[in-house]
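New to this. Explain the following:
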Amino acid sequence: MKKAVVCSLAAAVVALTGCVGPMGQVGGTWGGLYTDVSGAAGVTSNPAGSKMGQASSSGIIFVATGDSSIKAAAANGGITKISHVDYHVTNVLGLYSKTTVTVYGD
């Protein structure tokens, strides 16, 4: 009986943690209980600029919305020449997730 309960709980955790987890290039590091990581997503040969733009997407349980693309972040900052891109991912138990992409340039 205990084994069945443990297996059921483990299956529920696995099913829920994949629902709104970080995806794509920025989703490489993930903690099962809590994730709060930042890093570089890309660099170009353009010189460092004076502008910054951000775009975010988030999810709660089975619903995820937003546009955290580099294109959206650049548009939000009025950037046409990107110098580099950073990201920040937060995830709590796979129930809540937020990804923010920051673009720098001119």
